[in-house]
Amino acid sequence: MKTILGFVITLTVVISGFAQTMPKDADPVLWQKALRIHRRAIVVDGHNDITSPMVDEDLDLATDTRGKFHKDGDPFYTDLSRLKQGGITGEFFAIYVSGSTLKTGGAMRRAMDLIDATYREVERHPKQLSLCTTAADIRLAKAQGKICALMGIEGGYAIENSLYALRDFYRLGIRYMTLTHNVSHDWADAHGDVPKNNGLSEFGKEVVREMNRLGMFVDISHVSEKVMNDVLDVSTAPIIASHSSARALNDHTRNVSDAVLRRVAKNGGVIMVNFYPSFLDARTNKEENERAARLKPQLDALRDKFKNDPDGFNAGRRKLFAENPIYVTPYTRIVDHIDHIRDVAGIDHVGLGSDFDGIPFLPAGMSGSEAMPLITYEMLRRGYTEADIRKVLGGNFLRAMAQMEKVAGKRQISGQGSLKKLSK
Fold first, then answer.
1. d(CA 353, CA 252)
2. What is the DSSP secondary structure assignment for residue 189, as one 8-state letter?
3. Which helix H or strand E contains 371, and what residues bound it?
4. Is pLDDT larger for residue 19 or for residue 344?
5. Residue 386 to residues 337, 376, 381: CA-CA distances in angstroms?
6. Do β-strands 350-352 and 240-241 pair in parallel, antiparallel, or remain unpaired?
7. Strand partners, 241
8. pLDDT tops 80 at residue 76
9. End-to-end CA, the chain
């Protein structure tokens, strides 16, 4: 699927326990400097969907996932070794709840299953993983050479319109909540969906206030622009976009406009750039959509042929896509978005939110979570200082998290308050 061949990996370097790969035509001296910076930095990734196969496929993160595929046929990008090789300190395990649960029910149950899977993975691998809930925990994990497992709910309908549930999710370790996914629901409107509330409802605003009180980030990825602005009107703590990019570079509803970027800067929040090529680049997005429409008859035929053989269908689909390649933007496009957010909002308000294992393909030249140092190298090549690189890699997120915790005040919560439900 990846059509840019100039980023063929040619060299492996081992520094302090993690192997890294150098892209073709890179400056070896600059590459070594990038690795040293990356090794010293705290790297926080705002969103990883590996949690779903941990439940649905009983995946143990110790499994080598290179060359393996999800049950839906997309490649794996994450395992413990690959996270370590990528120098990642803090990884947000997505507690993703499908919008289909608005019809079928079971949103809260699904969230609980994913939270339990995250706890069990930490229990299985205590030498490599640490469950983290504070900025101080992340710093400690770095000192211990561990990877922080953090958790964020994706889909605010998981609380089932209950502030009791929101507080219990906080107690279980949830430290951000994406207010919706791709569907509008009772109290928040999604990007690209029909609005139901003209942004946030009054209950939705109460959810934001309660998240501020608890010390849980409000995440504006996936929401409509009106919701973004409503959140910024209400929130007294820094907010995040856990996995979104800059709309000025690709006019996609999943991305954040310059007007919102400026408000996020005043709020003290962080926009964490998504790695999905179709969010990064308009050409990739256009060609991906056109290919899907053009190949629909062949895909329907494959689906019928392999209706009782999902592995056969997935293999056939991969072959069909390989025979019909599209332009895939290179990994350097991630840094284009970092550049733009820096220019509009400031260097203190940009971070990384990969969306690993939640997207069908990565930018050309990027193989998975082990490839994170490529971003450090490209920033260094463009003239970013080490201090600024470390801010983008994780320092900005840590600063915002510490401020969020300060706004929340005392971490002990009483659990008092009435059950909040919407009238139908």
1. 17
2. P
3. none
4. 344
5. 18, 9, 11
6. unpaired
7. 271
8. yes
9. 46
Q: How far apart are CA 259 and CA 138, in angstroms?
A: 31
Using pLDDT thresholds of 50, 70 and 90, give the confidence band for residue 13. very low
Q: Are 188 and 179 in contact (CB under 8 A)?
A: yes
pLDDT digits (tens, 9 = 90+) for 168-198: 999 999 999 999 999 999 999 999 999 999 9
Chain segment 188-229, per-residue pLDDT in tens: 999 999 999 999 999 999 999 999 999 999 999 999 999 999
Is the overall model pTM greater than 0.90, yes or no? yes
Mean pLDDT of 358-363: 98
Angle at 11 between CA 370 and CA 353, to 5 degrees: 20
Decide: 320 and 313 in contact? Cβ < 8 Å: no
Instruction: List Cα–Cα distances, 99 to 54, 156, 184, 232, in angstroms.
Output: 20, 10, 9, 24
For 177, the enclosing helix (H) or strand (E) is strand 174-178
DSSP state of 12: E
Cβ-based neighbour number of residue 148 at 10 Å: 26
Structural domains of the chain ordered from first start: 9-281+329-408 (3.20.20.140)
Cβ(43)–Cβ(394) under 8 Å?
yes
Structure tokens at 20: 């890294």
E-state strands within 223-325? 240-241, 270-273
Separation between Cα atoms, residue 153 and residue 114, nearest integer Å: 10
DSSP helix, strand, coil percent of the chain (3-state; round to 5): 45, 15, 40
Note the pLDDT of residue 135.
98
Nearest of 185, 167, 268 to residue 222 by alpha carbon: 185
**CB-based contacts of 6, cutoff 8 Å, min separation 6:** 24, 25, 330, 365
How, if at all, do strands 147-154 and 90-96 pair? parallel
Closest CA to 372 of 362, 359, 382: 362
- Strand 18-23 vs strand 9-15: parallel, antiparallel, or unpaired? antiparallel
Count of CB atoms situated within 10 Å of the CB of 182: 14
Contact 3, 326 (CB under 8 A): yes
Q: What is the per-residue pLDDT for 20?
A: 55
From the centroid of its chain, how far is CA 265?
A: 20
Distance CA 325, CA 290 (A): 11
Q: Which two tokens stand for residue 412?
A: 């002990």
DSSP assignment of 198-245: SSB-HHHHHHHHHHHHHT-EEE-TTB-HHHHHHHHHH-SS--EETT--
